[in-house]
Amino acid sequence: MAVKALSVQQPWAHLITIGAKDIENRSRRTTYRGPIAIHASLRADRDARVPTEQGRAALRTAGDLAFGAIIAVAQLTDSHQCPGKRTCSPWAVPGMWHWRLSEIRALPEPIACTGALGLWTIPPGVQAALADQLGDAEAEAPGDGPDDGAGDGPADPLRSVYAERAALIAYLAGQHPAVIVENDLSAPDMALIYLDTPAGQLSWHLHPHDLHLFDHVARVTAPAGPVWDGHSTDEKYRRLRRLVNGSAGSARHDRPSSPGGP
Ligand SMILES: [Zn+2]
C-alpha cells in the first residue's frame, strides 16, 4: 500500500506531532482521506506565530526539533474551508483549506528522508522503516483488513531480515541490562526493547513474531519501564560503534595503549 506524506515546516510539524495542532493550513483542497505521515521539512518557518499558549509552552521545552525526517503518522480526515473569519480551530487560518489531522502517533525514531510539495508518496525503503516502527500489520493492512494472527503470509521479503536483526538484538540484550516495554502508545502493536549500555541507551522495535527470541529479557507494560532518552537512529548506531571500539564506559579520554592494563 502506498503511504502518503505531507512535508510541514518546523515548528509546525512538532506541534502536530505532540497533538497540539489539529489543522494543517494549505492553499489547496485534497480529496485524500486516510493514513498520512508527517514529514518535518529541512527548512524552518522562522516567522511562525504559535496561536496557543499550550503550543508555545510545548515549544519552550521541546529541545532540538527534527528536520528532514518523518516524525509522526496521523489520519487525514477532512479538508474544508471555514466560511467567514471564525474558524474551526485556533490553528486554522481563515481563507485556507483546513486539512484535519487526527489519531496522531509520534514515531519513537525520526526517519530521515527527502520531502516534497503537496501530498507525496513515501518511497519503498522509507516505507519499510516506517512499517518497522509502526508494526507490519498496520502499515500493510490499515482499516479492517484480515488480521495478522495467522501469519504474515509469504509476501514480505523483509520479514527474514527483521528476524535476523531480532536474533542479533537478542544476543546484545544478553550482554547488557535490557527491558522490553509492551503497549507503548507510540506503537501499540510493537514491543520496544531498551538496552542500557556503557555507551548509552539503545532501543529497537520488536515484531511480535520475534518476541519468542527474548525470553531472557524482563517485560513491563507502558508507562512502566525505561523512558526513551531521545536518541535518533543515527545516534543509536554511533553508540553501538563506540561499544564496538571499546571507547564507551570506564575508559575515559586515555584508552589503554596496550592490552593487559588495569
Ligand atoms: Zn476549518
From TrEMBL:
Gene3D superfamilies documented for this protein: Hypothetical protein
Region (Disordered): 135-157
InterPro entries according to UniProt: PUA-like_sf, WDGH
Descriptive protein name: WDGH domain-containing protein
Membrane-spanning ranges: none
Pfam family membership, one: WDGH
Domain WDGH, chain residue ranges per copy: 162-242
Acidic residues bias: start-end ranges: 135-150
Lineage of producing organism: Bacteria, Bacillati, Actinomycetota, Actinomycetes, Streptosporangiales
